[in-house]
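Final report, Chapter 2: Outcomes

The project's central promise was a pipeline that accepts a single protein chain and returns its three-dimensional structure in a standardized token representation, suitable for archiving and comparison. That pipeline is now operational. To close this chapter, we reproduce one record exactly as it appears in the project archive, with the input sequence first and the structure output second.
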Amino acid sequence: MRVTKYFLTTRIRQDRCGIRDEWIERVIAQPLRTQRQTDGRVRCWASIAEADGRYLRVVLLEDAETVHNAFFDRDFMP
């Protein structure tokens, strides 16, 4: 999994350190929804059963492969 330096920096935050790589990879491989941002980045969401069904948002760079951000999105509505 390719990641940005920003991802590595934010990943150590207490609210994000528990997000597993396999969850991120699952969201990328099988998103419930995707959306391209105006800057070209791609947002992907999926429910993570192991995290009480919360929705994980993964933001990819324009190449749709490099992970820039990952966090549980409290505002996501399926």
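Archive annotation: The beta strands are 33-36, 42-48, 54-60, 67-72.
This record, like all others produced under the grant, will remain available to the consortium after the project formally closes.
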